[in-house]
Amino acid sequence: MNRQIDAVIFDLDGTLVDSQPAVLRATQEALARFDISVSDQEVRERFGGGSRNIMSYFLVRELGEGKANQHIDEAVEAKNSLQTEYSSDVALLPGVDKLLAQLKQDGFQLGIATMGAGATARRVLSRKRIDAYFARVLTVDDVTKPKPDPEILERATELLGVEISRSMYVGDSGHDLGAAAAIDMPFVLADTGLFMDGTRRIDLREQAQSIGYPVVEIDDLESITAIAKNYSPS
Predict the structure, then answer these.
(1) H helices within the chain, ranges in order?
(2) pLDDT for the residue 34
(3) Residue 73 shares a structural domain with residue 187
């Protein structure tokens, strides 16, 4: 059977790495500079769409839109800088090394499409020694619209030189699923549970399954290789 997928593109946080400690610490410390205190759960619930999205939400909620607009650039810069500093706290998820090595060996092109800051993403990939696997790394710095807008996926496939229909995106969030669905791109939900829990996690699984997207657990990420090799359009 001829293979239908040429490239596999990954989200980063919560999909390939556990960046929770760094994200929580950086977000909370950056907000504390504006006398704003938020819980771990509040950060998890708002995670996704990039630093500007999450920082804007809390600044507007606590300071009002006017003051939030005055401080948003400073807050985003602080959060991104701190998260890069805390990148040593980030850990690879189980099986990621083997997954990437096998995909590469099997001839797939690999890319990253994350709403994380460029400096942070590249530091994490380098520290975890997986940067060499990826032909292209796209971050929030490379696009004008955050996920779930599909701009970053369209740009990633363009730079990889592959068709959207012959590319597969792997992500852990509703933003990831929404971006892929918007352009009918094959998608795999990595149900790691790091930034999604409770009802939100169950709802996302059900949404993915209702569309026909495969769902893989945190301890079975290596199965993505077989999914990519055996994928057939419905």
Answers:
(1) 20-32, 40-46, 51-63, 65-85, 96-105, 118-127, 151-160, 174-182, 198-211, 224-230
(2) 97
(3) no
